[in-house]
């Protein structure tokens, strides 16, 4: 089932194309048929936001103190501590982005305990979209780990229109658990949405035919 919303991006902006593709992963993985649905884990994102907002809040406090209390206030132990805290938080944020998140765009968990981690990357002026996928059992055993890549032109038209179905088809063809989910969706919908990753009741599909 094709999406009714048309999404266009500048075709020469690799960052925009990558971001649009990255953003399409969570809705797809979160709408797979049970028991394959992945609930997204936002822990790393929440830590990222906390560090970022905390640094901004401290910077705002320091600016307010300087404007309202004049230059003398900047010599206060509180202001010095705030400035040191700001640089510490920014350093932690930089470390978190490069060493902990390390390009991860999705981390999710099934009800049965299996987890999936997907990291994406691109090279400047390259049309190739690269993913590193790691799928683990509930006990932490690696069930599948691989790197895959293909061209953005598989799901972006020449005018920048984004078509999610080819992206989902590519993922289902490369990642075993998503391939199984696609087969399950096809079974439930009679092929109506075999690769779209929608949760629909079979009776509802038949009523729309």
TrEMBL record:
UniProt entry keywords in alphabetical sequence: Endoplasmic reticulum, Membrane, Transmembrane, Transmembrane helix
TM segment ranges: 47-65, 77-100
Family matches, as Pfam families: SPC25
Record's subcellular location: Endoplasmic reticulum membrane
A cellular-component GO term for this protein: signal peptidase complex
InterPro entries assigned to the protein according to its UniProt record, in alphabetical order: Spc2/SPCS2
Membrane topology reported for the UniProt record: Multi-pass membrane protein
GO biological process: protein targeting to ER; signal peptide processing
Protein role: Component of the signal peptidase complex (SPC) which catalyzes the cleavage of N-terminal signal sequences from nascent proteins as they are translocated into the lumen of the endoplasmic reticulum. Enhances the enzymatic activity of SPC and facilitates the interactions between different components of the translocation site.
PANTHER family found in the cross-reference section: MICROSOMAL SIGNAL PEPTIDASE 25 KDA SUBUNIT, SIGNAL PEPTIDASE COMPLEX SUBUNIT 2
Family to which this protein belongs: Belongs to the SPCS2 family.
Designated name of the protein: Signal peptidase complex subunit 2
Species classification: Eukaryota, Fungi, Dikarya, Ascomycota, Pezizomycotina
């Amino acid at each position: 089932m094709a999406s009714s919303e048309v999404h266009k991006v500048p075709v020469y902006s690799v960052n925009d194309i990558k971001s649009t593709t990255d953003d399409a992963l969570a809705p797809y993985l979160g709408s797979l048929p049970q028991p394959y649905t992945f609930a997204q884990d936002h822990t790393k994102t929440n830590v990222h936001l906390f560090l970022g907002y905390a640094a901004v809040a401290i910077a705002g406090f320091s600016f307010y103190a300087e404007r309202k209390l004049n230059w003398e206030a900047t010599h206060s132990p509180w202001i010095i501590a705030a400035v040191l805290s700001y640089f510490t938080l920014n350093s932690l944020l930089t470390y978190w982005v490069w060493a902990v998140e390390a390009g991860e765009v999705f981390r999710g968990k099934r009800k049965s305990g299996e987890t999936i981690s997907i990291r994406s990357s691109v090279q400047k002026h390259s049309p190739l979209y690269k993913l590193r996928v790691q799928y683990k059992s509930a006990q932490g055993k690696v069930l599948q780990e691989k790197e895959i890549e293909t061209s953005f032109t598989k799901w972006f038209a020449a005018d920048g229109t984004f078509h999610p179905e080819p992206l989902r088809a590519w993922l289902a063809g490369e990642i075993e658990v998503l391939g199984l989910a696609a087969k399950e969706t096809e079974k439930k919908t009679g092929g109506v949405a075999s690769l779209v990753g929608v949760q629909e009741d079979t009776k509802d599909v038949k009523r729309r035919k």
